[in-house]
Amino acid sequence: MPAFCLFASPEAPPGPEWGPAANLQLINGREALEEAMKSNDGIVAPTGYESAWRFQTVVVDSPKYLMALEEELVQNGAELHIEGFEIHGDLSSLAKELNCQVIVNCTGLNGGDVAYDEAISMPGRGAVAYYQRPPGALKAVVTAEDGPLAASETTPAYCIPRGDVVVVGGSYNLGEHSLDVTDAELKRIKINANAYSPMYLGHSEPFRVVAGLRPVRCAGVRLEVKSIQGGVTIAHNYGHGGSGWTTAWGCAHELANLILQTS
């Protein structure tokens, strides 16, 4: 899907390292920006933005994608057991209790606690609103890096069409655990929605408003495998923050290779 990362300056900054892989182009000047964005069926360049990165991105329809992954897992012979448990001691004791040779710690926000990790982990709280997506409309992802909609790192402003919904955000509050969306957050998200798509989102109300907790590890993602006494292999894969969808496949492949080398 086409994507635009907006800037308030007349000239966009140099593109990131991943730019060539995503066919990234620099768009400079308000007139060029409006021309570039006019073909996205209801997405516009908000007032106060003069330049952008334009690139191709992948959008994950999360519920459908997770169901497809689970189905593929079962088709390949996996058995799924969903239950709560308590860990008495370290993860090796859990492995012995479950009678397994490999245990992978993918517990997200609780990954550090489960692994007795000294690196600090904390939630990166975010709030979003879900709007109904008109059929055939809103055909681009838009995010702002600065300017009137994204005045600070705690107030990212993005609009992500995803299947039959549009996700508009947001917030990024390190260390906050609240799952309640404040009136001020909702007001700001609605302003973002109207700024990005006054034709569609500006005339509708969100049907769902939620807050979630990104699993942030201050030292970065922990991707580690170790073999312990008794033939048990313990693997860790957590701390991805807000980049879980982006890094999921790469981390999974690397971790699987490490497990095969260690076991």
Question: Would you kindly provide a written description of the structure presented here, covering whatever features stand out?
Answer:
The chain is of the alpha+beta class. It is built from 6 helices and 12 strands. The two termini are 40 Å apart. The model has no long low-confidence stretch (mean pLDDT 92).
Helical region count?
6
Report the sheet with the most strands, covering strand number, pairing sense and barrel closure.
9 strands, mixed
Distance between the termini: 40 Å
Poorly predicted tracts of residues: none
- Estimate what percentage of residues fall within beta strands: 25-35%
Backbone structural class: alpha+beta
Number of strands: 12
Residue share in helix: 25-40%
Quick check: average pLDDT? 92
**Taking Cα atoms only, what radius of gyration do you get, to the nearest Å?**
21 Å
Please, what is the oligomeric state? Answer: single chain
Shape: elongated
Give the helices and strands as they follow along the chain: EEHEHHEHEEEEEHEEEH
Sum this structure up briefly.
This protein is α+β, with helices and mostly antiparallel strands and 263 residues long.
Features:
12 strands, 263 residues, three-stranded mixed β-sheet, alpha+beta
Indicate the topology.
Blueprint lengths: L1 E6 L17 E4 L1 H8 L13 E6 L5 H14 L15 H8 L3 E4 L5 H4 L6 E12 L8 E4 L12 E6 L2 E5 L3 E2 L8 H14 L11 E10 L4 E7 L3 E7 L5 H19 L1
Parallel strand pairs: 1-6, 4-12
Antiparallel strand pairs: 1-3, 2-3, 5-8, 5-9, 5-10, 6-7, 7-8, 11-12
